[in-house]
Fold this sequence. Notes:
30% helix; 4 helices; globular; alpha+beta
Amino acid sequence: MLAILYPELEKSKIVVAWPEVESDVVISADLLRLEQVMVNLIANAMQAVALEAHPRIEVSQQLCGNSEVKIRVRDNGPGMNKQDIKHIFEPFFTTKKEGQGLGLGLSISQRIIEDLAGSLSAKNYQCEKEASASQVSGAQFTVLLHRG
Protein backbone atom coordinates (compact mmCIF):
# COMPACT_ATOMS: atom_id res chain seq x y z
CA MET A 1 0.00 0.00 0.00
CA LEU A 2 2.77 2.41 0.90
CA ALA A 3 4.65 1.64 -2.31
CA ILE A 4 1.57 2.66 -4.31
CA LEU A 5 0.86 5.86 -2.36
CA TYR A 6 4.40 6.94 -1.50
CA PRO A 7 5.09 9.04 -4.64
CA GLU A 8 1.97 11.15 -4.08
CA LEU A 9 2.51 11.43 -0.33
CA GLU A 10 6.15 12.44 -0.80
CA LYS A 11 5.32 15.38 -3.07
CA SER A 12 2.37 16.55 -0.96
CA LYS A 13 2.44 18.21 2.44
CA ILE A 14 -0.04 15.71 3.87
CA VAL A 15 0.85 14.24 7.25
CA VAL A 16 -0.23 10.63 7.57
CA ALA A 17 -0.38 9.14 11.07
CA TRP A 18 -0.01 5.36 10.81
CA PRO A 19 -1.06 3.03 13.62
CA GLU A 20 1.50 1.91 16.11
CA VAL A 21 1.34 -1.85 15.88
CA GLU A 22 2.17 -3.58 19.14
CA SER A 23 1.85 -7.05 17.68
CA ASP A 24 0.77 -8.70 14.47
CA VAL A 25 -2.96 -8.89 13.98
CA VAL A 26 -4.16 -11.72 11.77
CA ILE A 27 -7.41 -11.13 9.91
CA SER A 28 -9.50 -13.21 7.56
CA ALA A 29 -9.00 -11.35 4.29
CA ASP A 30 -7.39 -11.47 0.89
CA LEU A 31 -4.35 -9.19 1.23
CA LEU A 32 -4.54 -7.79 -2.31
CA ARG A 33 -8.23 -6.97 -2.04
CA LEU A 34 -7.78 -5.36 1.36
CA GLU A 35 -4.85 -3.36 -0.05
CA GLN A 36 -7.09 -2.15 -2.88
CA VAL A 37 -9.66 -0.90 -0.37
CA MET A 38 -7.08 0.83 1.82
CA VAL A 39 -5.40 2.51 -1.17
CA ASN A 40 -8.80 3.78 -2.30
CA LEU A 41 -9.73 5.12 1.16
CA ILE A 42 -6.39 6.85 1.67
CA ALA A 43 -6.31 8.25 -1.89
CA ASN A 44 -9.81 9.68 -1.36
CA ALA A 45 -8.68 11.20 1.94
CA MET A 46 -5.65 12.72 0.20
CA GLN A 47 -7.95 14.44 -2.29
CA ALA A 48 -10.23 15.63 0.50
CA VAL A 49 -7.42 17.33 2.43
CA ALA A 50 -5.52 18.73 -0.57
CA LEU A 51 -6.69 22.30 0.08
CA GLU A 52 -6.39 22.25 3.87
CA ALA A 53 -3.76 24.43 5.55
CA HIS A 54 -2.51 21.51 7.65
CA PRO A 55 -3.68 18.37 5.83
CA ARG A 56 -3.73 15.26 7.97
CA ILE A 57 -4.88 11.67 7.58
CA GLU A 58 -5.02 9.23 10.48
CA VAL A 59 -5.04 5.48 9.97
CA SER A 60 -5.74 3.44 13.08
CA GLN A 61 -6.54 -0.10 14.04
CA GLN A 62 -8.37 -1.37 17.09
CA LEU A 63 -9.05 -4.86 18.33
CA CYS A 64 -12.73 -5.36 19.10
CA GLY A 65 -13.00 -8.25 21.49
CA ASN A 66 -11.48 -11.53 20.39
CA SER A 67 -13.09 -11.72 16.99
CA GLU A 68 -12.90 -8.40 15.12
CA VAL A 69 -10.50 -5.69 14.00
CA LYS A 70 -11.56 -2.13 13.22
CA ILE A 71 -9.46 -0.14 10.75
CA ARG A 72 -10.26 3.55 10.59
CA VAL A 73 -9.20 6.19 8.03
CA ARG A 74 -9.89 9.77 9.11
CA ASP A 75 -9.07 13.04 7.40
CA ASN A 76 -9.32 16.67 8.40
CA GLY A 77 -10.93 17.75 5.14
CA PRO A 78 -14.31 19.43 4.81
CA GLY A 79 -16.30 16.29 5.61
CA MET A 80 -19.22 15.00 3.61
CA ASN A 81 -22.61 16.52 2.92
CA LYS A 82 -25.29 14.65 4.92
CA GLN A 83 -27.24 13.90 1.73
CA ASP A 84 -24.11 12.55 0.04
CA ILE A 85 -23.37 10.13 2.89
CA LYS A 86 -26.63 8.32 2.12
CA HIS A 87 -25.42 7.60 -1.43
CA ILE A 88 -21.64 7.38 -0.99
CA PHE A 89 -21.45 3.61 -1.68
CA GLU A 90 -23.76 3.62 -4.71
CA PRO A 91 -22.11 2.82 -8.06
CA PHE A 92 -21.33 5.93 -10.15
CA PHE A 93 -22.13 8.34 -7.31
CA THR A 94 -19.40 10.94 -6.98
CA THR A 95 -18.93 14.37 -5.51
CA LYS A 96 -15.74 14.94 -7.50
CA LYS A 97 -15.45 17.23 -10.49
CA GLU A 98 -15.87 15.74 -13.93
CA GLY A 99 -12.85 13.71 -14.97
CA GLN A 100 -11.63 13.14 -11.39
CA GLY A 101 -13.39 9.86 -10.77
CA LEU A 102 -16.16 7.58 -11.95
CA GLY A 103 -17.79 7.04 -8.58
CA LEU A 104 -16.91 3.37 -8.43
CA GLY A 105 -14.11 3.25 -5.83
CA LEU A 106 -16.24 3.25 -2.70
CA SER A 107 -18.87 0.98 -4.21
CA ILE A 108 -16.21 -1.56 -5.16
CA SER A 109 -14.49 -1.17 -1.79
CA GLN A 110 -17.71 -1.86 0.08
CA ARG A 111 -18.38 -4.97 -1.99
CA ILE A 112 -14.85 -6.25 -1.39
CA ILE A 113 -15.20 -5.81 2.36
CA GLU A 114 -18.63 -7.45 2.36
CA ASP A 115 -17.18 -10.37 0.37
CA LEU A 116 -14.64 -10.70 3.19
CA ALA A 117 -17.57 -10.95 5.67
CA GLY A 118 -16.87 -7.46 7.01
CA SER A 119 -18.40 -4.02 6.77
CA LEU A 120 -17.38 -0.58 5.50
CA SER A 121 -19.08 2.53 6.81
CA ALA A 122 -18.68 6.28 6.42
CA LYS A 123 -19.52 9.26 8.58
CA ASN A 124 -18.35 12.72 9.51
CA TYR A 125 -16.60 13.05 12.82
CA GLN A 126 -15.91 15.87 15.22
CA CYS A 127 -12.75 16.44 17.16
CA GLU A 128 -13.86 16.37 20.79
CA LYS A 129 -11.41 19.07 21.86
CA GLU A 130 -12.33 21.66 19.25
CA ALA A 131 -15.67 20.98 17.64
CA SER A 132 -18.98 22.49 18.59
CA ALA A 133 -22.21 20.72 17.72
CA SER A 134 -22.30 22.33 14.24
CA GLN A 135 -18.66 21.86 13.21
CA VAL A 136 -17.42 19.02 11.03
CA SER A 137 -13.80 18.01 11.48
CA GLY A 138 -13.57 15.60 8.56
CA ALA A 139 -14.61 12.28 7.11
CA GLN A 140 -14.14 8.87 8.70
CA PHE A 141 -14.29 5.50 6.99
CA THR A 142 -14.35 2.37 9.13
CA VAL A 143 -13.56 -1.16 7.99
CA LEU A 144 -14.63 -3.95 10.32
CA LEU A 145 -13.12 -7.41 9.65
CA HIS A 146 -13.01 -10.74 11.43
CA ARG A 147 -9.78 -11.86 13.01
CA GLY A 148 -8.38 -15.02 11.56
